[in-house]
Structures are given as structure tokens and as C-alpha cells.
Amino acid sequence: MAEETTATTEVAGGHEMSYFNPASPEFWVYAGLTIFILLAIFVAKAPKKITDALDERIAETKRTLDEARAIRTEAEAMLATAKAQTAASAGDASAIIAHAEAEAKTLLAEAQAHAVDLTTRRAKMAEDKIAAAERSAVADVRARAASTAASVAAAVIAQTHDAAADRGLIDSAISRLN
User: Fold this and answer.
1) I need a labelling partner for 24 at 20 to 30 A (CA). Which of 38, 75, 90, 120 fits?
2) φ/ψ (deg, to 5) at 17
């Protein structure tokens, strides 16, 4: 008879585990994992998908590098142009500065004159607004006074006149009309 050989591992705590024993749960976990990996490789065409993804990533990286090279070439050309322009404009800088200073003095004088004119106009506008507000306030006070006076007069007339006095006033007004 043949003897059965099993591999065992001793775990902390003194327990013994066997990975190749079909009765142990670990055996079935490893068997299932192995079957899954084999299915993923051969049935699901995982290597093809992986290589396609890697090829796409490589192509994208190459495109990015090509763009970077083109941008670098363009930047170097722009730098050379800028250096040439800087060298050419170095002589003109003092003339430009002198012209700018003269122009700044002219603009400063114009700005001061404009500021004085603007201040005068704004002061006049403020005075006009104040005068208009005063007129409006006086008209409002007059209107309220007239309204109050009319109300008081109506109350006084209502208290002092009766129907007989009203008839006399109506008769005299009618006689004046004829």
C-alpha cells in the first residue's frame, strides 16, 4: 500500500493546518482561486486585454512625448526671437523712456486741469441738488399746511354753521349769479 503524504504547517497556538487536504476549507479556497485565474487567463482572454491596454498606454505616452518635443521646439524658436527683439530694442529704450516721461507730464497737467473742472462741476451739481431739495421740502410743508388748514376750517365751519346759516349763504350766492 502506498502511503498518503500531506504537507502541514503549524500555526501559532499549536494547531496544525493542511493545505493539500481535500477535506480542509483552505484547499477549496486555493482550488477555487486557481480555477478562477485559469479561467481569467484562457477563457476571458485577459492577456489580450492586458496587452491591448498596455499598447494603448504606450501609444498615448508616445503621442504625449511627440507633443512635448514640438512644444519645446516652438518654445526654443520663440526664445530666440525674443532674444533678437530684446537686442534690437535695447538702443530704442532710452528714447522710449524720454518720450514716455514727456507724455506723462502732459497727461498729469491735463489730469490736474480736468480734476479742477470736475470738482467745480460736482460742487455746482451738489448746490443744485440742495436747492431742489429745499424747494421740494418747502412745497411739501406748504401742501401739508394747506391740507391741515383746510381740514381745520372744515371742522370749524361744520361746528359753527347749521342748516339755516347754509340757506342764507346759498341764497346770497344765487342772487349774485343773477
Assistant:
1) 38
2) -120, 145
166 falls in which pLDDT band (50, 70, 90)?
A: confident
Q: What angle do CA 84, 65, 70 make, to 5 degrees?
A: 30
Q: How many CB atoms lie within 10 A of CB 17?
A: 13
Q: How far is CA 40 from its chain centroid?
A: 49
Q: Which residues contact 6 (CB under 8 A, 6 or more apart)?
A: 18, 20, 21
What string of DSSP letters covers 101-155?
Answer: HHHHHHHHHHHHHHHHHHHHHHHHHHHHHHHHHHHHHHHHHHHHHHHHHHHHHHH
pLDDT tens readout for residues 15-72:
555 667 778 888 889 999 999 888 877 776 767 788 888 999 999 999 999 999 999 9
Whole-prediction pTM:
0.31
Cell matching residue 97? 523712456
